[in-house]
Each structure stands twice: as C-alpha cells, then as structure tokens.
Amino acid sequence: MRGVTMHDADLRGFASDNYSGVHPEILAALAAANGGHQVSYGGDVYTERLQEVCRRHFGPEARAYPVLTGTGANVLALQAACDRWAAVICAESAHLHVDEGGAPEKVAGLKLLTVPALDGKLTIDAIRREARDFDDEHRAQPQVISLAQGTELGTVYTPDEIRAIAEFGHARNMLVHLDGARLANAAAHLGLPLRALTTDAGVDVLSLGGTKNGMLLGEAVVILNPAAGRGVHRLRKSSMQLASKMRFISAQLLALFEGDLWLRNATHANTMATLLHERIRGLPGLDVLYPVQMNAVFVSLPEPASAVLHQQFHFYDWAGSGTQARWMTSFDTTPGDIRNLSAAVAKALKQ
Ligand SMILES: Cc1ncc(COP(=O)(O)O)c(C=O)c1O
C-alpha cells in the first residue's frame, strides 16, 4: 500500500473543516523539522521558538503548551484554571458540553453549568443565571466562564462582548477560558489581531486551534494570565496530552502562526462560506439560520432535499434533525466546490 492514494483527492465535502488535508506549507514545515534528533517532550528548538511567536501574538505573559486535540486543549485549560470543586459556565451548544464525550466531567472532574445561547453566544444575562451562590457549600463553585470564538453556530463575538463577559466574571473571581478552535476565522472576520480577541479582551486562558486551519493535528493551550495556569505542565502529562515528539506539533504551529498562514487559510475558508451564502440565500424552501460570520453556513431545508444532497456530499445534519444542515468550508475549498454545492441545493429544492 506504500505510496498509493486510496481516495479521490479531488473530492471535498462540507461536513467539517477537519475533513481537509494538510496545507502544503505545513507539510513542508514538518519535512524541515524531520531528521536528526531533538530533545523530546517539548525541550526542542521548535517549541522554544513557538514561545516567542506566542508572546508576539498574545503579549509578554503568554506561554504555549502544545497538545494533541481540541478536546484535550479544552480539558487541560479548564483543569489549569479551576480548583477540584469548580464548575464551568458555558453555552448549552458549547462543544465542551455537546461534543467532547463528557471529557470535562470524566477527565477533569468539573461540572458544566450550561446556559441558553440562542446564536451560540453567551450573554451576561444568561451567565448571571448560574453565576451565583458562591458561598454555598452544596454547590459546585462557578470558577470559569468558557466561551467559543467563533461559536459552534458560526457566529463571532466582538472584542467588546468578550471584554464585558470578562469584566463580569473577574468581578466575581471567575476566570475566562476561550475555546479558540476557530479563533483564526473569527479574527479574519473582524479584521483584528489575535490579541484583540484574547489578552486585550480579558481572556485568561486560550485553546488555540490548529487542526481546523490546515494542520495535520495539534492545538495549544496558551496561558495568558499566570493565575489560570497552575500546574499546567503537570496536568498536560496526566491528561495524556504531552506528546513526546512535540517538535512536530510545534513546527506546524510555527508554520501557521509565525507568518500569516493562519490568516490566509482562515480568510479563504470564510470567503468560501460567504460565497455559498450569497448563492443559496433566498432559494425557496431554504432559510439561513444564523449570521454567516466565519466558515460555516447553517440552514433549514425540507427533509427530502436534505436526503438528496446527502447522496452527493458529506455534511452534518444539525440539531438532530434532517431539516437542519451545517455546511462548512475549509482552507482548500474552491469556488468550484461552492458552485457544485449551491447548484445541487437549488436542484434538490425544486424536486
Ligand atoms: C469549537 C470546537 N472546540 C473544540 C473542538 C475539539 O476538537 P477535537 O475534535 O480535536 O477534539 C472542536 C471540534 O470540532 C470544535 O468545533
């Protein structure tokens, strides 16, 4: 099987931005990091350089801890920011709550206090429902507010919205975690540096995404406020997120964040979603459910049309129903892919 491509490399789906392969510049960075020996477990030159790059993006206090998966990043970040008796306030649609197999509860032993978030974004009114009873010994103590930027519903917080949540939380001794699996897409949408949505907006600890933006695999926990990083290096090991050949995760993160690849990839993916939105909005029978602000388009459509489309493209039904779909774009989605999908959508709706 060596060297044999076992799939159609021209086939692109719309299920997730992690259906894509690896960006060629990342593959080149992996090849360049190969050969010779380097100190394992993060003592390598790539991981050291990554610290400099993270300080440039997030400020002088930032410290990066490369990890294997986004779930691992979230669970590690929350453990580092929380006491053992803590609870985390998050949106009911949060990936943490819905799609991490209960890892925050199982691995970190944390209680999640979920609140409604209609368009995926937490509001202070919603957070207030659970940010209470801090002296009650019977209640898991809310110590962290976790928000995703961009959200699981494809929406994006403004820096002012994040700052207001951080100020609310900090005034109650809570820290702020940002699930930035798609931070690059949010920054590209807003035309702002990463720092404006994190450090400068009061975020204490960040899960910085890589896989969904062109890496082979890998993310990083970035501690922005040292108070949110207690024992993080020990917790990374005990949470099984300490990669021995860490140079290969760090080399990918460097390729993404040292120059502007993070922004080029995210801007392209966002542009493809905007193009899809422009081509399908207004089609009879289809409604776009949320503002299209990054690389996802959520729609409602008749079940038979969805079934026809499922025969042609990979995509996820949303909210457990055949009448809602999520279409995601990636760094390698082409305008031709968007033309194919939008033409198929228009045809399926007419049947
Ligand atoms: C918002 C968000 N956070 C975290 C993750 C977790 O990533 P992983 O699948 O690498 O654990 C995902 C993956 O879909 C995600 O969408």
From TrEMBL:
Q: Required cofactors, per record?
A: pyridoxal 5'-phosphate
* Chain ranges of the Aromatic amino acid beta-eliminating lyase/threonine aldolase domain: 14-299
Name any one Pfam family assigned in the record.
Beta_elim_lyase
- Give the InterPro entries listed for this entry: ArAA_b-elim_lyase/Thr_aldolase, PyrdxlP-dep_Trfase, PyrdxlP-dep_Trfase_major, PyrdxlP-dep_Trfase_small
Regions that span the bilayer = none
Q: Which UniProt keywords apply?
A: Pyridoxal phosphate
> Which family would the database say this protein is a member of?
Belongs to the threonine aldolase family.
Record-given protein name: Threonine aldolase
Q: Origin organism of this chain?
A: Paractinoplanes ovalisporus
